[in-house]
Amino acid sequence: MPDAADLLAIAVEIVRDAGETARRMRVEGVSGVATKSTDTDVVTAADRAVERQVVDALRVRRPEDAVLGEEYGASGTHGRVRWILDPIDGTVNYLYDLPQYAVSLAAEVDGRVVAGVVRNPATGAEWTATLGGGAFHGGTRLHGSPQTELAQALVGTGFGYDPARRVHQAGVLHGLLGHVRDIRRFGSAALDLCAAAGGQLDAYYEKGLNPWDHAAGGLVATEAGLVVAGLGGAPPGLDMVVAAPPALFKPLHDRLAELDAAGGP
Ligand code: IPD
Ligand code: CA
Prior knowledge:
It is a single chain. This protein is α+β, with helices and mostly antiparallel strands. The chain folds into two domains: 136 residues, Fructose-1,6-Bisphosphatase, subunit A, domain 1 (Fructose-1,6-Bisphosphatase, Chain A, domain 1); 109 residues, D-Maltodextrin-Binding Protein, domain 2 (3-Layer(aba) Sandwich), CATH 3.40.190.80. Strands 4-3-5-6-7-8-9-10 form an eight-stranded mixed β-sheet, with helices on both faces. β3 and β4 form a beta hairpin. α5 runs parallel beside α6. The longest helix is centred in the first third of the chain and has 25 residues. It is globular and about 50 Å long. The model has no long low-confidence stretch (mean pLDDT 96). It binds D-MYO-inositol-1-phosphate and calcium ion (CA). Belongs to the inositol monophosphatase superfamily.
């Protein structure tokens, strides 16, 4: 069984170098902007360069592993280890020079995420976790928020790029806003999950996340003691990711289920 700590050490080294590429390319000016699923879903030359850099570095360090990246999809032979990469999570923030974007890299062994790192190259902040080994930020172990009342909870979320999905998400938000302290939409799911792990958000939910958005951040949140799941006992995935401390999970889950947050387009 590949050692989670060894995989994390490789991930951290690679993500630091790749994050520096993203930061430098942002300073030099964003280029190569194109759209993907909708007119608001952007990709830049930096997304592609970072993904290529990480995949190339993994090929050198771990030639036998598979990789799934947001921009170039799946590559490599599928052995026991698969890496899941979001080269820039928060691409719209990156485009607008808002310092809230991240490189996110997770390692799965036999389909289970065992190591993950999320790094914000704009601030140098970095979160890491290994399965069973805890979640850390700047050498400090994370334990999530102590909040127990949904009515007092600051809840992070995000919206997809498809207008029809956004309309549904707005309806959910409308039904939730009166039941929580407030809502935050920072623009990077990976960083939102890390914020929930560190108690800077009391909880987080979002519909429509892909594996690269939540693989590493989800492990950071889980290892900080949060429950990370979908609705109705489903695993976290495309339909819904909820991350909340145990005391907040059920009230938030039940409210989201009532609002059919995992439904719609
Ligand atoms: C997006 C961000 C955003 C979330 C979207 C994601 P991208 O990822 O994580 O916060 O709301 O659902 O698609 O496109 O910036 O990599
Ligand atoms: Ca993303």
